[in-house]
Amino acid sequence: MLDKDLVDYALEHAKNKKIEYAEVRAQNQNREGILLKNGVLEAYSMVVNSGLCVRILTENGLGFASTNKWTREEAEEIVNTAFKTANSAKRKTKIKFVEEKAVKTSWKVQQKKKTEDISPEAKIDMLMEIDNTLTTQGINIPARMLSCSIALTQKYFVNSEGTIISSFVPLMGMYNFITIVENGKPEQAHKQYGYSGGWEAHDKWKVAEDLVREAKALQKLIKEGKAVSPSKMDLVCGPEVVGIAAHESCGHPMEADRILGREMSQAGKSFIYKDGSFWIGTKIGSDIVTIIDDPTIKNSYGYYEYDDEGIKARPRYLYKKGVINEFLHNRETAAKIGTKSNGASRAINYDREAIVRMANTFVQPRDMSEDEIFEDVKYGIYMRSFTEWNIDDRRFNQRYVGREAYLIEKGELTTPVARPIIETTTKTFWTAVDAITKTVVLDSGTCGKGDPMQGMPVYMGGPMIRLRGLFVK
Amino acid sequence: MSEMLAKTESIMKKGKSLGADEVIAKTTLGRYRQTRFSNNEIDISVAWNVYVTNVMLIWKKRVVATQIRNFQNIDATMEQLFKLAKVLKENPQYGGIAKGNFKYVTSMADKALRDLDDPSQYVKLAINAAIEEAGPETNTGGILFTKFEEIFLASSEGPTVQDTRSAIELSIRAFSTIDASGHGVECSSALKNFDPSKAGEKAGKIARLARNPKQGEAGKYDVIFDPLFWGSLLGSYAWMSSAFNVMIQMSIFANKIDQKVASNIVTLKDKPAAYSIANRTFDDEGHPVGETTIIDQGILKTYLHNTSTAKLFKTKTTGNAGLVAPMAWNIEMDAGDVCRGDMFNDLKRGLYLTNTWYTRFQNYATGDFSTLPRDGIFLIENGEIQQSFKDIRLSDNALKILSNIAEVSKERQHIHWWEDADPPSLCPYVLVRDVQMTKPT
Fold first, then answer.
1. Which site among B26, B29, B43 would you substitute to test the A interface, given the most A Cβ atoms closer than 10 Å to its Cβ?
2. Cα(B202)–Cα(B425) distance, rounded to whole angstroms?
C-alpha cells in the first residue's frame, strides 16, 4: 500500500509550519528471501514493508520521523515530531540545502521476466540445482549457504519546493558462502550477485559455474599453494580486487559528509579535508587512474535515475587522471562546500535518513589486453580475488589478502600462492598503477554506512590493473 | 490479556486454523529516538515509530516467515503464507519450537525512556565533558539512542506472553587534533543510571593523550585491550557461538565442545539481564532467557541454541532463538582478579588499544583475521604511556587471542557501539600476550 494522498497530506501539514524545507518519502517494498543451508531449505520469507518518513529543516536544525502506520493522525504525529526535534537542535551554524530545480517525473526499471510470474517452487529449484551441481564435483564442501533475495520497491517523493517523483525498482540478489576442505585444511569463499531488473538476472548470472570454478581453485590452492617470499614486486589485480580498492580507497573518502565530519563517530572521516594534504586538485594516483561512480548504468545493482532528495543522477568522476576531482554530495554537503549536489543521497528504507552514498564505483578501462598486462612482469603476483580486507577510518591504510592468487614468472602464471597480503596506503596503491586493461567486470556488494546501518546495494569493479614495485608479504 | 496480546494471538490462531502445525506471532510496538551530532552540534534528530508482527509458520517441517504491519491484511497475508508453506520442500533438520508453559522474570523496563521526547540535553553533557578534558578546540561527534519496545508473543505451543524492553546509549568520539581521537560509550537500560558525561570524559581524555601520534612499529606486543575494543572482539566470538554459524563453519568453535578454547581465566556468558541494553525476558520462541555459560574457565561448554538447533546437537535450547537462527543477546565476560591500575603498572612494554573497527576474517574456521585499531593507540612502558601511535593493524588469530589472555580486570563496563561492538556486552580490561601487529609498507 502506498497512499499518495496521505503523503501529500503530510507534506501540506508540514508546510503549514514555520519550516525552511520539508520532504515526505514513502516506500512500499515486497521482499522475498530464500535460504538454503547445506542443501536444506532453511526458511522462505515473504514480507511487505511500507511506510513513510518526513524530513524537516527549520532555522534551528533538521528533524526526521517515520512510521509504518498509514493514518492521518500518524502522519500528523511524525510531522509534528520532526518539526519539534528540528527546532530543539538549536544549532549555532545553520544547515542549508543547496538550491536545486523542482522536478516532476516518474521512472521505473522494467522486469523482462517478472518475478511475480516465477513460482516459489521454481525459485527453490534454482537454488537446489546450484547446490546439486556444486556437490557432485568430487570436492569436499562440508558447509554451503546459498540465499536468494527479491525486493520490489515503489517510492513516492514530494518536497516543499514542488518536486514530485514516483519510481519503481526491482532488485535481484544472491549470496553464497562455501567451505572447501582438502587434507583436513579448510578454505572459504563468498560471493554476492546483484541486478536491477527481473528474474532474467538468473539467466545472466552463472552462479553454479562460478561456484564450481571457485571450489576447484580453492582445492588447488590447498594442495599446491606456496607462501610468497615478502618483498617488493609487481602486482596484477583482477577486477574483484580493483573493485574493492576503488570502493574503499576512492569512493568512501570522497563522500562529502565524511569529509565534513558528519560520520566521524561511526564510519569515520577522510584523509581528504580542508587545509590538509589532500583536496580537490591534489595528485593521488598515476596519470592513467580515473575512478568513476555512476548510478546510471542500466541494470546495475546501484542503479537509480533520481536520488532520495530528488536530484537527477549522473556519473561522478571521483579521481580523474590521478587527481582528486569531485566529491559525492547531497544537498547539505554541497551547500557547505559551495557546489551543487551530484545526486548521491540514498536511503535504504523509508525509516532511514538519506545520506551520501556510492552507487557503482569502478576504474575506467584503457586499451591493454589481459595477455599484455602479464607480458613484461618478470616476477610478481596475480591477485585474482580477495578474502580478508579492511581499511582505516580515514580510508588511507588498507589491506587486501588474496584468495585466488598466482605467481607470475617471466610473464606466465605459474603456481598458486597462499594468501598473499598487500598492506599499503591509498596513495602508494594508486600511484603504483602503470597499466590497465580494456574490459570492465563489475561485482555486487552491500556497502555499509550510517547509524543505524544502511546496507546499500552497489557495484564495484574495473578492468585488471598492474602495479609496479608494491610490497607483497 | 492486553488488547495487543489478543491481536497477536489472533494472528497465531489464524495460522493454526488454516492447518499449520506450529505458529509464532511476535508483535513489536517500538518507539526509537536518535540524536546524531558532529562538529559539536546536533545534525539531525530521528524518530521511528514501528508497529510490526513477525510471524513464523511451520507446516510438515516447512518453515515460512512474514511480517504484518500495523495489523493490516491479516487474513490474506496468513493465507498466502500457508499457501507458500504447502509448496515448499521439507526441512528435515527442523526440530520444533519451545513447548510448554514457562515462568518468566518480571520486566524492569524504564518507562522514563518511553516518555523522553528531547534527549538533546544528554548530548550537550557529553560534548561539554569531552571539551573539558581535551580543550576548547576539541571536535566531537556521535549519537544518542533511546529505545522503548513493547513485545507481545503468542505461540501455538504454549507461550503467550508480553515484555517491555528499554535502552539508552550514547557514543561519542572526540578529536583533540585532526589525528588524535578518543571514543567513549555509555549504555544503560534505565535513565537513572545513565551518565553521558562519563563517555564524553573518557573520549576527551583519550583524545588528549593521543596527540602527536607516530607511525607504530610492527611486531609482537603484550596488549591491554580497553573494554570498548574488547567488546568488538567479544561480538565476533558471540556471533561464532551461534549454532547456525557453527553449522555453516562460520565459526572457530566448530567441533570443539568440551575442548579448551581459551585461557583458564576466561569465562564467557550470554546474559540479557535487566541491567543490559539487550534486556528481555524471553526469546523469539517465547522461551525464557537466562544465563548461558558459553566458555567456562577456558572450556567451550555450549553453542547458543534455539529449540531446533538444540535438537540437532542433542541438547536443550539456551533461549537464544531469533526467528530463524539463534543469536547472542548480551555477552558478559567474568571479571578477573586484577585491578585495572595494576594491570597497567605491571606492563613492562606493550600496547594499550582503546578501540577498533573493520574486523574481517580470512577464514572463519581457522580464525585468521585482522582489525584496525582506531582512536588512542598507546605504547606503554613500565606502566606509563610513552608514545601515541597511529596506523597499525592487529593481524592475528582469534583462537590464539583467547588462549593468550593473561589478565582480566575486576572493573567492567557495558559496551555497545554501532556495528563494531555488537551485540552489547559487559567487558573488562584484558591483557593478551604476544599479539601480532602489522603496518603499511
1. B43
2. 18
